[in-house]
Amino acid sequence: MRRLSFLLRPGWIALALVVIAFTYLCFMVLAPWQLGKNSRTSRENHQIERSLNTDPVPVKTLLPQQDSSAPGAQWRRVTATGHFLADVQVLARLRVVEGEQALEVLAPFVVDDGPTVLVDRGYVRPEPGAHVPPIPRPPDGAVTITARLRDSEPMGKDPITRDGFQQVNSINTEQLSVLMKVPLAGSYLQLVENQPGGLGVIGIPHLDAGPFLSYGIQWITFGILAPIGLGYFVYSEFRVRRQQKPAPATEAPMSVEEKLADRYGRRR
């Protein structure tokens, strides 16, 4: 134990605490964060690929009731017949479409014999100074639309009002239902090209798994190497200290005269 007493010094204790904290972060925070993003990306890619090869279905088959949502069918193409609530529109601000700033226009759509759903009509480009440009009203009367089913986004900051439009930071159906004072289904619809009331078309993401899996594996590797590195430093320090330990002192050999004097001195 005395040989390892150097581990109780403040510098070594601090180093051990840093390694423990780093290892914990790698295994419990950083690696799960990246692996979770990889799982979500893989699931979304699978949903997109499936939607490209599947014919549209009536929205009521996936959203049969007012409080329905369909997280397992995101990006699936659906059709709906009904009418827009043209006087109720909200803008999603701070969006990016094709690398440029955009405003997405949101409006409720009442499905015949079905739920009221939020419809993302598409995007418009803001005018200089981030002002809202003129936005065409959606058509009055009954229309049939084709759209992609989308999951509600996490709730963002409180809405603001600018240029006569209420604006939100995220497309969260619960928040927008309160803001619009209209009941909305849990999932929303994003119009595809050439649809009644459509604006700039928002494309689907590219099928790219991204680097999240490799990042997750890297953090796991770092979490394994950190304690191994600490162990190596402890071993190296212990070996150096053992090599530097002074050898025990030995008595010098006695000369012949000393031996004779010692012998005859004992006889006397």
Automatic annotation (TrEMBL):
Protein's UniProt name: SURF1-like protein
Membrane-spanning parts: 12-33, 212-235
Membrane topology: Multi-pass membrane protein
Lineage: Bacteria, Bacillati, Actinomycetota, Actinomycetes, Mycobacteriales
Pfam families (alphabetical): SURF1 (PF02104)
GO CC, alphabetical: plasma membrane
Lineage: superkingdom: Bacteria
Keyword flag DNA-binding: no
Family annotation (InterPro entries): Surf1/Shy1, Surf1/Surf4
Cellular localization per UniProt: Cell membrane; Membrane
Family assignment from sequence similarity: Belongs to the SURF1 family.
UniProt keywords, alphabetically: Cell membrane, Membrane, Transmembrane, Transmembrane helix
Organism of this sequence: Mycobacterium conspicuum
Keyword Membrane on entry: yes
Annotated Basic and acidic residues bias: 256-268
Region annotation Disordered: where it falls in the sequence: 246-268
